[in-house]
Amino acid sequence: MSVVYRRYIPLVVAFVTGAIMILEYYISENYKVVIDAADVLKTWRIILSTVVFIGVINLFRVHGRHISRRRPGQWYYSAWLLFLIIFYAICGLVMGVQSDTYVRWFVNAVTVPLGATMYASLCFYMAAGAYRVLRARSLETFLLLGAAFLVIMGNTPLFPYLWPGFATIRNWIFDVIVTGGMRAIRIGVGLGATATGLKTVLGLETGYLGRRR
Amino acid sequence: MTVKEERETIWDKMENVPRWVLLTLVVISMAIPILHPIGLPILVGQPARDAYNAVEETPDGSYVVFHINYGAGGKPTLQPAAVAISHHLFRKNVKIIYFCGGVVDLANIKEIFEECKPEERYGKEYGKDYVVLLLTGDFNTQASIVLSHLLATVPKDAFENKLVDLPMFQGYKETESIGLVVQLTTSGDVSEGWVAMAYSMYNRRLVGGWLSMMTSSMIPYYQARQMLGYIDGSKGAADYELLVGEPGDAVAITDILSLSQLVYLAFIVIGNIALIGKKYYGGGK
Can you give the pTM of this predicted structure? Predict the structure, then answer.
């Protein structure tokens, strides 16, 4: 019974679910049963978003352990994190996450500036990185440097205005070299995803069932 | 025995400019245009022009789905684009379905309205000409709902109004009514997801907008005309602002881009001159 419960039922569920979602792409609207079944499955995915709670519980487990063991250099950050999770949850529940007060004080005054600060700091790393890395030490690095230099010039609004050729060169690099490379990557990823998906639906890929006993 | 220290040459100094010098110059190059806007000229790019044309060619009376999906990090880049595109859409006789997946996005949408002033400037009315939806769940579910099962699945808008009671949804025919999908996002998955959902699955016209660093992965879709045009970061947003005749934050940002990237380029040149100098004339270290 346990083999049926652990192995065969999940495989059948995966096959039926996958088959319905795939069929929806290829059949006409006359087959209403399949279309309706696919719609129901899409609605279920909304319910699955509640798994975020599992993430929160896991956070409490991991960071609760740091706090209880007073792990040096870590426990006070963990305490602050858990405090903020609880504080934000309570404020969101009491005020409502769409209320002006919540948006003004918790989103606009805290989340937005913190996010913007984190993101803005990237430009300094990029400046330092570009200065130290983009050096023509060999033929390969010379080509990389040349391409990077031309793309930066094409992306800098001032240069294409001074000479539109900078934009043309930059576009050529993107349209021919970059797109060629990206297409190859995309096709590879697509074929890989299709193969993995088919293997999962057909029961040949069973990693999601956990370790076999 | 004393070890004789090798003297630091000019090439060594150029090769190892202290990080604080570089970063200070970057800060200065950003601060100058903020304090004193320079108004450096901009050449409007083709992708933004194509995006503009796609919006312009949207049939009268059709619905435009406008997905706002960026947090604080992407806001300086994408919010000006959202404002510029909204100006364009409000001028046209189309109905706009703004939708987002979180409160940060919702706050961004409210700010778009504060800047565009659709009621005052364009005589548009909430519920009659535009609506805001706040949807939870993963992106594919959100997109699928908005493109094909909106009225059946979403009972209320972001401000608790019943969708079926709103005048703009009288005679709404779901997918068939949607003339254009516009998406501004900092997420690669969402950006590509829209190609799969809007173009491949529901055969809708699509315009995108994202951070410049995402362009290399998205450009194949534009070349294949699966995406009619796109906003390429701050530069694309500035292009769109100029195209709609509403220069704003993005145009101001391009001054910062031009000056700060000049600093980047200057230091790249300095580093390479140092490398060549050391190779031919030798360095102390």
Answer: 0.80
